[in-house]
């Protein structure tokens, strides 16, 4: 039965490959833009921007609150896994 199902589903192999590649790329993009490491980098950048006078204290507080909430959510999600 495995041989028959393999032969019958062979035409779908390119679709499965494209789906797999898309999933890998989406995970990598998420990690690079929204993951914990990216969030920490953004928080550090906001700190540097504040120190350099590129953003105000109020703007920094808004960014900091958002990013810290995101980091806490990551930690809670890891704890539940």
Describe this structure in words.
The chain is mainly α. It has a domain at 45-71. Helix content is 86%, strand content 0%. It is built from four helices and no strands. It has helices at 2-9, 13-33, 36-52, 57-80. The chain starts with a helix and ends with a helix. The model has no long low-confidence stretch (mean pLDDT 88).
| Main sheet: strands, sense, barrel | none
Distance between the amino and carboxyl termini: 37 Å
Low-confidence stretches: none
Order of helices and strands: HHHH
Oligomer: single chain
Structural class, by secondary structure, is: mainly alpha
Task: Specify the overall morphology.
Answer: elongated
The count of DSSP E runs of length 2 or more, i.e. the number of strands, is 0
Helical content stands at: over 70%
- Please compute the radius of gyration using only Cα atoms: 21 Å
Q: What is the helix tally?
A: 4
Mean pLDDT reading: 88
Strand content: under 5%
What attributes does this structure have?
mainly alpha
Q: What can be said about this structure in brief?
A:
The protein has 81 residues and is an all-alpha fold.
Topology at a glance:
Layout lengths: L1 H8 L3 H21 L2 H17 L4 H24 L1
Helix pairs in contact: 3-4
